[in-house]
């Protein structure tokens, strides 16, 4: 008897489907210890960070509890908490503000002013500090002027800034620029002064030119102090910005906080202060993260 052509061409169609073989129990047992080892290694590497995060969370909760108790019982002990809003009042105010586009506009305008003023200060102060630290004549010319202007607080610059610049926006950015400029300049100068001269002489002995010495020796050695100046400058920039917005601004988180005080909206005052703190903390964390990327040799 001859078989049909279909059966001859496709002999495997009527075979039973093969079931995928399950891995032996030994393989699964090997995977589990490997996963546990990876988790344990990750925990050992991040143990310090996890501990710091836990302690930080506990301290924040303790702060909120103390704040709640002081406002609930209207404590008066040198400091009066009779009109201070409670954490719940501030939370209710924040939920309402998050749905208000005007509050978001205040935050965005403050962030824009900070970005412009801080970026301009960084682009001028860092190269100027490097040049002043390298060339004595330029240091002797610029340093006395900077030391006279540096102690002047940003709030004292507000009337002069209004006269110098045609709009309030430009004057506020200028004050923010001044607030961050001097900390960045001073720390860059300090970093240049601490560069090991042995490294400079070694680079010269190897035939490096001035530009190469600047790029390969002075700049990398000064980077930790430069990023310290950037972090400090960012904090001072926020202080200067809020002062300028409270005095001459019409928008911004500083103006929002001052307007809340004028309208006797205590919860909004606390909300504005917390927003300033969160924005300042976020910007400082971004600078520290950029510093870790720029200085991989400093990682542990």
From TrEMBL:
A Pfam match: BPD_transp_1
Location relative to the cell: Cell membrane
GO annotation, biological process: alkanesulfonate transmembrane transport
Keyword Transmembrane helix among record annotations: yes
Entry membrane topology: Multi-pass membrane protein
Stretch list, region Disordered: 1-25
Residue ranges occupied by any ABC transmembrane type-1 domain in the UniProt entry: 107-287
UniProt GO cellular component terms: plasma membrane
Entry-linked SUPFAM superfamilies: MetI-like
Main location: membrane
Transmembrane segments: 50-70, 114-135, 147-166, 172-196, 217-243, 263-287
Keyword match Transmembrane helix: yes
Domain of life: Bacteria
Family: Belongs to the binding-protein-dependent transport system permease family.
Protein name in UniProt: ABC transporter permease
Source species: Bradyrhizobium archetypum
């Amino acid at each position: 008897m001859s078989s049909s052509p279909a059966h001859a061409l496709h002999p495997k169609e009527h075979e039973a489907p093969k079931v995928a073989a399950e891995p032996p129990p030994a393989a699964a047992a090997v995977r589990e210890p490997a996963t546990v080892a990876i988790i344990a290694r990750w925990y050992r590497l991040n143990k310090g960070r996890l501990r710091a995060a836990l302690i930080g969370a506990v301290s924040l909760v303790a702060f909120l509890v103390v704040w709640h108790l002081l406002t609930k019982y209207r404590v008066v002990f040198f400091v009066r908490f009779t009109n201070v809003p409670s954490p719940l009042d501030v939370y209710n105010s924040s939920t309402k503000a998050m749905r208000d586009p005007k509050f978001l506009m205040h935050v965005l305008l403050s962030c824009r002013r900070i970005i412009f003023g801080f970026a301009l200060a960084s682009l001028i102060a860092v190269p100027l500090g490097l040049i002043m630290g390298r060339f004595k004549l330029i240091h002797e010319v610029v340093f006395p002027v900077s030391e006279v202007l540096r102690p002047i607080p940003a709030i004292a610059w507000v009337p002069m800034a209004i006269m110098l610049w045609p709009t309030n926006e430009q004057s506020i950015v200028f004050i923010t620029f001044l607030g961050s400029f001097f900390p960045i300049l001073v720390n860059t100068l300090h970093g240049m002064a601490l560069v090991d001269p042995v490294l400079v002489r070694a680079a010269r002995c190897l035939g490096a030119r001035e530009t190469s010495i600047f790029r390969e020796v002075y700049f990398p050695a000064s980077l930790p102090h430069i990023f310290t100046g950037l972090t400090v400058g960012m904090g001072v920039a926020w202080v200067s910005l809020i002062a300028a917005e409270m005095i001459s601004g019409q928008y911004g988180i500083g103006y929002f906080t001052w307007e809340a005080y004028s309208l006797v909206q205590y919860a909004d005052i606390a909300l504005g202060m917390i927003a300033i703190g969160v924005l300042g903390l976020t910007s400082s964390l971004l600078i520290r993260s950029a510093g870790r990327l720029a200085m991989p040799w400093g990682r542990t």
